[in-house]
Amino acid sequence: MRHLKIEKAEDGFATLILDNADESMNVVSDAFIAEMDEAIGRLKNDVEVKGVILTSAKKAFMAGADLKQLVQGFGKLSVKQAYEFSQAATAMHRAIEHSGKPWVAVMGGLALGGGFELALACHYRILVDDPKAVVGLPEVNVGLLPGSGGTVRFALIAGVKTAVELLLSGRAVAPAEALKLKIVDEVVPAAALIDRARAWLTTAPDPVKPWDVKGWQPPQKKGLTIPEDSMAWMVGAGSIAKAGYNLPAPRAILSSIFEGMQLPFDKALSVEGKYFARLLTDPVARNIIRTTFLSKQAAEKGARRPAGVPKSEVRKVGVLGAGMMGAGIAYVSANAGIDVVLIDRDVATAEKGKAYSAKVTGKAIEKGTLAQDKADALLARITATDDFTLLDGCDMILEAVFEDTAIKAETTQRAEAVIPVSAVFASNTSTLPIGQLAQASRRPDQFIGIHFFSPVDRMGLVEVIMGRKTSSETLAKALDYIAQLRKTPIVVNDSRGFYTSRVFQTLIHEGGAMLEEGVPAAVIENAARAVGMPVGPLALLDELTFDLPLKIVDQAIAEEGDKYAPPAGVRTLRKMRDELGRSGRKSGGGFYDYPEGGKKALWKGLGEHFPVQGSYDIDALKRRFLYAQAMETARCLEEGVLETPQDADLGAIYGWGFPAWTGGTISFIDTVGIADFVAEADRLAQRHGPRFLPSPWLRARAERGEPFYADAVPASKEELVGA
Q: In 10 A of CB 543, how many CB atoms?
């Protein structure tokens, strides 16, 4: 066996060791299931074996299914084949329960997904006393449910309330909580794990599970007639509604638990398998897995890093500007062990920026997630100053001053007079062209854009912008720095607004256009949230303030003149700011009012200045939001601003919150089917204007039937949710 090893001992207790020969982590795959079936059979039939210790040779016990295998199967697996895949793992777990011998799972590290389902099938579970050794069933996060008994066993062992909360959230729990919830039986130090397993086996435990005892009855045959159970189902249903009905996994999980608690055990497993099969063959799971796991991991491992450039490490970074962005960059850099020189116009302002790091570390200390000595060391790595000479010795400079070309140019020149000639100079700009900013640099080949998202310490995406003269070595160094920060990079080429800012604007301007057309503001906001956006476009505009998007438009008009077509929502913003004196939250109010001590609410004057005109179709509004963003992303690929669909999708989901169920803006096009997407875009263009009009380039792709992902399989009309 390649992935397993059996060791027998004189006391009659065999140890089955998981050790995937092809991966750094144990994962569930066809090969693993086949070997487990063989091992279980051998252990069952070996009369010398009285009990089994199941453990791992790796740091972790076991992760879930092999996501690469699952993604590659989309469009090729039928529902029946997906069900059979589920039932193969289910049968393997039942073979453990029916082996006639007690099994104890010894988890020396994390056990998630299929790995924890395997542990649940054992008769006893021992977890190492290490906060990093979390356990749980997070399948909802990839658009699936636990498909080999997880929903059924978890609910029977931990109870319905706990199962609903953890399975719908996908939350993993640390050892202390796992013990409290009774999903593990012991938590012990690493050195005592095997001894405690043997000690339990010496008690000659009953190898028959409660649900295999003759006469066992499902715990909820009365269903919703039990008040406390009824409450759990109502809370679960409410959480699904809040998450949005574009995600089929939460509904399937809740249904699987509900039905499973009223059925005989094996029938419940069969029902769970059928829900799993439907999800596995649904495009939503494929989209989520491909972008949020496979593409994300590839980006973090250097998928876009130029080959042949030696690995680099930033030991000292200069951060120019101690405002919100600069303060955040200083914190994440110091948190990664990098020395930081934080510069602003005076020491007091720089110290104010450093205080942000003190605030973040202070909260972590209160929560018990950071020790005081480590917080002190982090803060000691940040030097707050107004002295540019302290930048001497920096490997990298992060400029985060006000979005003004002249101010950035002056800052660049002052820094380059001091820093080593080998240092990379990066601008944290969200809109200003890198080529334009690089004109102030002595070394434009070492000038690059590194666009962080706010708040920097919580947002994982970083948009790296290549100028025309930026070298491959500079890109590699920038990506190495981002890897030190443990963030997710995408690489784009220079243009106005780059990628994320450019496409994000289509969302907010579409909301402004809808308001001008006479769609009620509440309907606009709810349509955006219903399709999966975290916040409505009008609320987003209020947080941005109207000055920023209008400034971007005015700059484009000044530079391009009649060649530039202003976004459809500009008239609404100008009216709000210039005529009505409302330009966002910071100015006291915009589309919303912000009463002191109360909750924000849509401004009542909107109906007067933007009267409702006729009826509206909520599904049509949802399509407009999705298509506007997807169409602009396609243009970015056509123009070479983007080079890969993976960067496009990662930027969409992690940059501005494009709905995860789509997999991102480009995955959305492929899911609809490029020909159907173009046809619908034409209909939208006829009704709402040329911003939806497909280009000849996109039409040619549609005519060739050429998707953006080579393995793309369009969804059927029945499968496609929300679009």
A: 12
CA 492, CA 644: separation in Å to the nearest integer? Answer: 9
Task: List for the chain the helix, strand, coil content (%; round to 5).
Answer: 55, 10, 35
Residue 382 in 3-state DSSP?
strand
* Residues facing residue 589 across a β-bridge: 584, 593
Q: Which residues pair with 491 in a beta bridge?
A: 464
pLDDT in tens, 531-556: 999 999 999 999 988 998 998 888 88
593 is written with which tokens?
Answer: 């009012």
Which strand (E) or helix (H) includes residue 250? helix 248-260
CB of 112 closer than 8 Å to CB of 67:
no
Full-model pTM: 0.91
CA 322 from centroid of its chain's CA atoms: 28
Query: How far is the C-alpha of 576 from the C-alpha of 287, rounded, in Å?
Result: 38
DSSP character at residue 694: P
DSSP 219: T
Q: Determine the pLDDT at residue 713.
A: 59
User: How far, CA to CA in Å, does 305 sit from each of 81, 147, 312, 448, 500?
Assistant: 38, 37, 12, 14, 20
Q: Which residues contact 126 (CB under 8 A, 6 or more apart)?
A: 104, 105, 106, 107, 184, 185, 186, 187, 188, 193, 196, 197, 200
Tell me which DSSP letter residue 487 carries.
Answer: -
Q: What is the pLDDT of residues 579-634, one digit of tens each?
A: 999 999 999 999 999 999 899 999 999 999 999 998 889 999 999 999 999 999 99
pLDDT in tens, 226-251: 676 777 778 878 877 766 678 999 99
Low-confidence winner among 65-74, 114-123, 509-518 (lowest mean pLDDT): 65-74
What are the angstrom distances between the C-alpha of 257 and each of 64, 112, 212, 253, 560?
A: 20, 19, 19, 6, 59
Q: Is-cis flag, bond preceding 455, omega within 30?
A: yes
Neighbours of 432 (CB within 10 A): 21
- Provide the 8-state DSSP code for 662: G
Ordered strands of the 382-385 beta sheet: 382-385, 339-343, 316-320, 396-399, 424-427, 447-452, 461-466, 488-493
pLDDT value of position 432: 87
Cβ contacts of 643 within 8 Å, gap of 6 or more? 491, 492, 493, 637
Place of tokens 């494929």: 286
- In the block, tokens 């001992």 appear at 9
Task: Give the alpha-carbon dihedral of 89, 94, 99, 103, to 10 degrees.
Answer: 80
Identify the H or E element spanning 168: helix 160-169
Which positions are annotated as active-site residues? 451
| String of DSSP letters for 99-123 | SSS-EEEEESS-EETHHHHHHHHSS
Does residue 261 contact residue 219 with C-beta atoms inside 8 Å? yes
Beta-bridged to residue 54, according to DSSP, are 16, 105
Q: Report the relative pairing of strands 424-427 and 13-18 from DSSP bridges.
A: unpaired
For residue 287, report the phi and psi dihedrals to the nearest 5 degrees: -60, -50
